[in-house]
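Quick start: what a row looks like.
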Amino acid sequence: MKTNKTFILVVVLMLLALSSSAGFFGWLYLKRLLPQIEGSTAVFGIADTVQIIRDRWGVTHINAQSGSDACYALGYAVAQDRLFQIELQRRLARGELAEIFGPDLITVDRMVRTLMFRHRGQAYLDNKKIIEPETLQLLDSFLRGINNYIATGPLPVEYKLLRFSPRPFTRLDVVAVMGYMAYSFADGIIRDSLYSILEPFVTVDDLELLFPPYSLDNRTTIMEPAGDSPLNIEQKSGFSPEQDPVKRDYARFYSFIHHSLTRLQQLTPAFTGSNSWVLAPSRSVNGHALLANDPHIGIAQPGVWYEAHIKYPGYENYGYHLPLMPFPLLAHNATKGWAITMLTNDDLDLYRETFHPDNPLEVKFAGKWVGVKSIEETIKVKGGPDESLSIRITPHGPIFSDFITGYQGPPVSISWVYYKLDNPILDVVHQMAKASNIAEFEKAVSRLAAPGLNISYIDSSGNIGWWAAGRIPVRPPHMSGMKIHDGSSGKNEILGYLPFDHNPHLINPKSGLIITSNNLPTHAPLESGGVMTGYFKPSDRAARIYELLTAQEKWSLEGLKKIQTDTRLNEGMKFARKIVKLLDGDIDKFSGHEQRAFNHLSTWDGYMGVDSIGATIFELTIYHILKEVLLVHIGSENFRSYMNLVDYWNFLKRYLDEESLVITGTNPHHTAVTRETIVKRAFASAVTELVEKQGSNDKQWAWGKLHTIEYVHPLGRTKGLDLLFNIGPFPCPGEFPSVNKFASKAGDHQYKVSSLPSTRRLIDCNNPGESWSILPTGNSGNFLSPFYDNQAGMFLENQYRKTLFTTPQISQKVHYRFTLLPMSNYQEVPFPLYQTSTLNNIAAPVTGTTR
């Protein structure tokens, strides 16, 4: 599946302004930019010799004599394989993209700086009371490894194309990136603003239908997987939102946020969901606890995870690292294994602020005028003048709308747990990796404030566990988590945070089974008195996993592969049957194309395979049903935005179930149309669109013809460079409600996959070398590396590879062996590993070698 890169070398030569047009010399030039991954080199910063082994899949295996040397080697290897990726990540998190890309990224930089990842990161680093010295020591060693490679190794071709060189990486770069990753879990900023935008267009009852109470149609929770609950689920959300009496300019606010987030996620993708489940020994064939995990993240090339196996005395983990993080977020060893999914709890609120008419630095809070803090920022812009930005910080948080040029609506602030509480994320992840038993692991998990995570766990003693990690806000009963609140009265303030030991959790349940798929943790009220609120995903994936796992008592990892790659939509099949029933009376009126489409829909088995035609008819029909119902009320742009949220799936369930359900809207001249009429119109529109786009041949209607995936490199959005850096497009199965979740954005209506399983893992920590893994493309970010896309075909064909864990396994699969030698008898020259920042008065100058 690798692109013929020899064929397009001339393009690279032109972009690099080389005088020669010979492909041979261009190839030699590009090969010189690849890192040395065979042989040895002497480096400053390690005490003993360290080997970096890359196996046949490009996975890095490091066996060192100390944690410092191991982390140094990991940093060096990450720089070899992912240097440009971590460059973009730190610039994104610091709001410094315009400095290398130019004016097009100014809006993104303004938004990111307003989110204050750098400022919160620096406050964290300055608070020595919440960071363990060992954690900082290992982080510093990791950074030395990265920076020594920058000083001595060849830089990736992306630096040549953009014509800049990297500065040394710092502690602040790392924690700022962790702040961005926490933000990427927060759905509230999109949903809350859209909810407020729709208020003038529809009634309060309509909003209740468009954003239905979660438990009405999603009975499968983590703690009640069978859907049973002692509670009577209310038919109303419990909130009574009041519409703004004045039409607000929230549409521009939402538009800018959506645009900025889209650009941002093209460079560093957001977490969008995940599946994970754990099985107790009683539920496995071999009597071991088993773990399955596939985190769903936006598409990126290279992928989000750097797979590395790190070992030193007292520590070993086969892990999946965010490339700019020395400790794994997902991992396993011979003692334990763990996984994460998004909790999707509501830990973020938006507030409409009232500023003093005569003083822009005073805001009304709890009925009184209080001062706000102002921070002045300067954004460097490639090819243009510097850009200034003022950030006003209210008692709730920064004014998020200030970054929007020309915004005339009410100032909107963002209040987020990440701003309010200490969040020792480095120690949390490090201690999870070090924990030797379930009690130590739980203690590490308990320190997390944000983002909210489902953390699943198994160990070699047979324990299984799950924790809803992160601090859960306690809100007043009247306070909706779905709208922009009045920030002046003091009536809509967080009351506090639930203690961690009252968060939902399970340890060794009798069922021997724990499933998390971003669904509601429990129907039961929390200690605060209400059911947990959040942006929980429809429970279709969790319900399907539960259905499959309960079909038999005991499972092997081999059997779990079929569950992890399952594409059947049970709810989709129910939708299709209802649609078919509504269409059945008009069969004699169908055109030839409609008759064939109807036959495919009638016989559809619910699977979203690449060859399924019924899947295509289903997807197009439900899109047009919702378009017929909503477009007339909320307009095309709001319809697109709404359809890009998962709430549309819950609304569709109710619409097809309840014949009397109607969106009335606020337009007095609108005439309601029956559901049967709407479904018939929608089906006809779907078939017309399909024939126009794909032709009359049924084979061209297959789901994989529309639903495709392309792994786009950040520079691959430029014509010509796409041929160098991008992988695909390829036909792709699944959709967002399927277990094998290759999701597209329904509102964009292009069926191009936007998020996917970022890895698939099947773990038995009693047999760590018999566990399974796969990445979407490869472990290297260098486009000429053999490990750039060597897993792409396997991934789409639902294949896995063994995780090479034992010494004999690794020895048999060594492809490259690179040795770092401790340097002696060298001339030491100054090379700063840590920049002194205006935010950081702590300078830690360390010397290193020159290039």
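That is the whole record. Residues 429 and 836 are 26 Å apart (CA to CA). DSSP finds 27 helices and 33 strands in the chain.
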